[in-house]
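Researcher: Please generate the 3D structure of the following complex. Treat every line as part of one assembly.
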Amino acid sequence: MNTQTLNRPAPAEPASATARRPLPVQLREALPSALRKLDPRALLASPVMLVVELGAVLTTVMTLVDPGTVGVGVTIWLWLTVLFGNLAEAVAEGRGKAQADSLRALQEETTAHRLSGRPDPARGSLLDQPAEVVPSTSLRPGDLVVVTAGERIPGDGDVVEGVASVDESAVTGESAPVIRESGGDRSAVTGGTIVLSDRVVVRISSEPGHSFVDRMIALVEGSERQRTPNEIALNVLLSSLTAIFLVVVVTLHFVAGYSDAGQGVLVLTALLVCLIPTTISALLSAIGIAGMDRLLQRNVLAMSGRAVEAAGDVDVLLLDKTGTITYGNRQACAVLPVADVPDAELADAALLSSLADETPEGRSIVALVRGDGTRPPVPAAATLVPFSASTRMSGVDLPGRSVRKGAASAVARWVEEQQGVVPHQVGDVVEGISRAGGTPLVVAEQRAGEVPRVLGVVHLKDVVKDGMRERFAELRAMGIRTVMVTGDNATTAAAIAEEAGVDDVLAEATPEDKLALIRREQEGGRMVAMCGDGTNDAPALAQADVGVAMNTGTTAAKEAGNMVDLDSDPTKLIDVVEIGKQLLITRGALTTFSVANDVAKYFAILPAMFVVAFPGLDVLNVMRLSSPESAILSAVIFNALVIVALIPLALRGVRYTPSSASALLRRNLLIYGVGGVVAPFVGIKLIDLLVSTLPGA
Amino acid sequence: MSDVLPALGQVAILVTALALSTPLLGRHLARTYTSERHLLPERATYRLLRVDPDADQSWRTYALSVLGFSLVGLLLLHGLGRLQPHLPLSLGLDPLPADGAWNTAVSFVANTNWQWYSGEAAAGHLLQAAGLTVQNFVSAAVGMSVAAAFARGLARSRAGGRVGSFWTDLVRSLVRVLVPIAVLGATALAVGGVVQSWHGPRDVTTLTGGTQPVLGGPVASQEAIKELGTNGGGFFNANSAHPFENPTPVTNLLEIFLILLIPFAMAWAFGLIVKDRRQGGAVLAVMALLLGASTALLTWAEMAAPGTVPALAGGAMEGKEVRFGEAGSALFGAATTGTSTGAVNAMHDSFTAPGGGLTMFNMMLGEIAPGGVGSGLYGMLVLAVVAVFLAGLMVGRTPEYLGKKIGQREIVLVALYVLTTPVLVLVGTALALSVSPGVAGLQETGPHGLSEALYAVTSAANNNGSAFGGLTSGTPFWNTLLGTCMLLGRFVPIVLVLALAGRFAAAPRLPAGAGTLPTHRPLFVVLLSGVAVVVVGLTYVPVLVLGPIVESLS
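Model: Done. Output below.
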């Protein structure tokens, strides 16, 4: 491979790094869209806001017929209430627009070299088959196309022949090129990405218009956003609260009439709008869009909002050991000499045998022995003996000296074949390391004219990533059990599980075992999340409630899962769970806040409405608002402003710290329940102080 | 302050008695609704009714059985009222008018026992015993059955929407619970001095030498089930204020005990049926907390007696019986409105303004603290679902109650349940106050008149049945309005609750994990109480402001 082509200048701006402008700017930019959403048809999805808009229309008519300061004030602020709600949604949607635009650039029509006719076996490689030039939009699943360095891949698919480096920065935001090759788990390519070197044959797997990038655009724009089950249920609850308050206000008209304290439509409308849960209804869709957006910020694409919500409910997390819990390669952690071999001699031999060894294991031995990160040069006279599956050893031959390192049995055979003797002690050390879940690497040396002898054992071990233990403890606090899935034998698996602090292990796991485990947990009523990349992970990914496919994986895996992680970082699952929970918490907290607000609004509006007929009710005017008119107007203004004040919270989400359900509830009840009762008393009073300075109020 | 000690004493006795009875009766109730065995008299009844006691009904069949059974009761009662002169033991009384007979039939079938007539002057012994008393038993049994079906729905897992057999629940409620306890209760009341006889009016010579007809009758037997089944329909117009129904402070306390006995025990039984006693304990705690708070406030309102008239008179004794005093009346008032009983031993119309408002608020809670027999439990559990929904979102999970996920369908049913009663109360009150036949029934004008109308509609829609007094309700308008409120206020929620039970029974019961919101801890008890008070408060405060609150503040 030509490394020169890898340093391609100016990679596209990473999708996730779209700079965030300050909120006021975002609000201003969202204004036209918010105004368009005033169309009542756009509000049908939110009955609460529709009621507010109808109320605004009603008061507008009333005020036109009979103008007055309060009427004008209430009317303006009712319209603003609807507008603020639209603004929240428009801001949330606007955040995805920039990303969508950069993705659209990938959609431009290109030409493709489609293999024509049946592959001719005589020509051998597919790469040599004749090809015709067709527009990329005419490609159908199953078509084979040849893509050469410098060309755009015309559609989603799998590499079926060849290997190439591909620039996927426009999709993933990662500027380093990635290798895509046929067979194995690195075969999926995304339409719109660019081949930087070599030639590959790609089998197209998506219909035009339904590609990965198409779905991505729809997701980031929020245009395809389907409301999630919890959101729908919450909307039902909010609508029924609205219905109750509608009945309360309409009947109050008649009851007040009986009490000789009849109220005008204006005041009753103001009361209605203050009582119905406008705050949460205005912010509901913004919360949902922002939640998806937060996932996108972490480079996770959720194929449905339902999956994000399900992530919040996850009870069991299946994590692959390799690459997720451990660094994925064994590292040397100790060198153990046998018999009377001095430490330095063993260290020197181990170092020598590893100098030319570019495997992670080899490099870790150098790092362990040198301890300072430097790497001595390979002696000029050295002949390398590479690792082979049949010898299961590697090493180096120097003039008069041979060093080997490898599996215990392989090295023992090498030693014994040349009449050397393996001390008993070696067996004990090897067994001890295996029992602890490590891999023993025996080091032996043969000097010219001597029989070979065993110097000692290098202890390789799977190193658990930093901070995993703490993350699993956090998950446990959230009520989530982690299960480590590994192909290792039970002993090794148990040792690593113990070190990482996971709750359970599935050792010597086959893909079938994984699927069976998921089914078993689901039958017990638990929700399971997992991540995977290979084609053999696809059934399990499809079965899991939350299946996160790695972007580096196969197309089959990406289609089976309901999320794709563009960074291909399996620990991202934990973030996904947190975002799912945060989404629900934000909705619940703002609903509680919205309903709790009503208490104060009653204290403002009810005395104002009836104090003329019943002077005794002045006692209830605990905020000592300056006049009945000012009280009503202040409540309406507060109701509108609180939406704007909470937009940042809706977009950011309520702070979530992993802890027990009880602790979360206590905290959120205190902040949003009790806070929701107190805040409007203060807010309405402050607004009243301002409003009372207006003439005529 | 010499009144305080006896006031606290009677509460202490009551609490002790309930603390002893609740677990015992609760266990008995749980066995009643889960046992596989049929008793001999039950087998005979099933054969007579031609029903299969072991049939596991789907919620639809269960609901149709409830409605069909209640419809038959309604027609029978209506017939008894209309044909009264042609039937034996009628004491020569006239037939009930059409609207009145309908109102009474609905009232007793709906476990409300609103009485637009004077018991002794309009209903003969046959109507009282074969009609009203029978309904006192069976309407209570219907409520208990529905609650049992709901509890089973929550307890089951993937049961395909099957919630048990209505007929078995009904018969067992009667045979194993209501009849035996009513017999014990009636005996105790008779021993305590309540009248029990079968003859017509007797003339007695009064102190002044004149003669006056005095009516006896099967009072003690009706009294026991009147309280036990949270019915409240008195033999006499004066209800439990009448010395033949409730002669002494001892019988007064015994009647209060009977009122609260089953509602609290149902909560305990619920915990046992769902196999998690702590859940029952939490529901019980919310009921006790709300009832305790309302009793304390009501007692304070009556004993502190704010207002000019009580201050001059030295106590708020108007409309109260001297033998019970303020505290005995307040405790009875709280118990009768906190449950859907509606029996009264004092005129709630004459309670102090805040006191009257509190009795209304008790009913507006939806009769959940502790509520009617059965209906109190299912009403509270529906509110628990609302609380769980909000709380569940706030802990970041799809809300679930007892391992049942609360999704869109469930929340629709819950929302309709929560909507039904407030709509009936508010629309009914507004209607009564805006048409002349409605206003004509009110004795007072202004806020107190409003309270009279509000109380009546609230009482009917919540199936309480107590009257504020001051309202002349025996008119076609009021009979029709209140009858409609009683009918819809009883059976719409029952159908919704059974539908919810069916959905829960069909759903899997998920195991609780560390991330699941615990619904048995004090935090949840506080939350559920808060949800009940806030939701009800927000709904009714505007109309309460114009009635009792204005009265209290002026």
